[in-house]
Structures are given as C-alpha cells and as structure tokens.
Amino acid sequence: MFAVVRVCLGIKPRTAGDLGSPAVFALRDYLDAFIVAGLAALLLITFVIRTFYIPSISMIPTLQIGDVLLVDELAYRLHDPQPGEVAVFLPPVESGGHEFIKRTIGVPGDTISISNGIVYRNGSPLQEPYENQPPAYDLQIRNYGIYVNGVALDPSHADIPPRSQWQAPDRIPKGFFFMLGDNRNYSDDSHDWGFARRAAFAGHALAIFWPLRRLTILR
Q1: 64 shares a domain with 40
Q2: Which of 28, 86, 165, 213 might form a disulfide with 205, Cβ 3.0–4.6 angstroms?
Q3: 79 with 169, same domain?
C-alpha cells in the first residue's frame, strides 16, 4: 500500500508536450485519478468499513440470516451510539468472542419501560415500524435495576452496575446502553443480560451489502 502512495506522490505535473499527444495526456490523468480513487477505497475498507455476517433471527425483519452488512468502525470513535441505530458490540455475557448486533433503544440518562407490548423512552411510546412483533414481556428500569415481569435481573448473570455508578435509580447510568433486537421475543438482548457498555461498541451498521437483492441502507 505504501508503495502505491509513493507512486502517487511521485507523479509530477505534465503537459501535453511531455506526453506526446493530448490523448495520451488525458489518459494519464485519468489513470492517476483512478489510482488515487483506488487508494482511497483501500484505506476506507482497511481502516473504516468492514463486513458483518448475520447468523441469527434476532433482528428479523430488518436483518435476515445470511445478510452481509457494511459496518462503520469509525463512527463510535467520534460519537456515542444514538437511539434507533443498529450497532455491533461485544455483549456482557459469554459469546465466545462473537459480537452481537442489536438496535440502540436507550442511552445514558433515558428512562425505559415496556408495557402491554409498547416500548416507552422517557415516557413517550416509540414508533417502531422495524419491530417484528410486540414484546411479550413487561420491563422497567427502576430501583437501580432492570425488572422484567416484576423480577429484577440478577447482577451475577446480567450487567447491572452497582448503585455507586447510577446517577438516578430509574435512568440508564452513564456509560451504559439499552439494546433490543427487532425480533423482540426471539432476541437475546438487554431484557436478558442487562446493559451494553460504551467500550464494547465496535461499529454502526450502515447497509445490507449482500445478497444484492437485499441491498438496503439501514436507517
């Protein structure tokens, strides 16, 4: 790659007389532009964009088994995950080193509850056209924990930080995020294993890249 960089930087400005004819001059300029574009694409793929294969049904209907995504690895180095974004991250449970992909529902400072199949963020019901079916469980963040159907998640099996890390007993603590799969009742997510930590986020899913018939920008 560095050899290509040196070749590009070593190209000097030319005139039609140097190259023998306007046609050759135009061709060389076109090739120079092509090399620079190729180098930019290589840098983008190497350091910013990677692919992610979908192995499960947890994000149906948005993502299907076998979909290949383009993931922006730079995004979360520049800003925090935002509500509604589909994110790739390491879960707080044993996964053999495999990353999960879920939708960001709540960010630090938010209140989250689920009642009668409706997800509420800061007291307002979410409009979720991406959801496969309403959650078949109720949930509340309260009393320094996550309660599912009235029972608190066990901190020994879920990532529930100690009280000293909470800024309020009913709001997502700083540095933590609440994640759900779009296939709500068939997703291993925050209603099972608690919060996702900020440091665990690896990238923002941008688009379905493969198969071509499913080529889609994720919004």
Answers
A1: no
A2: 86
A3: yes
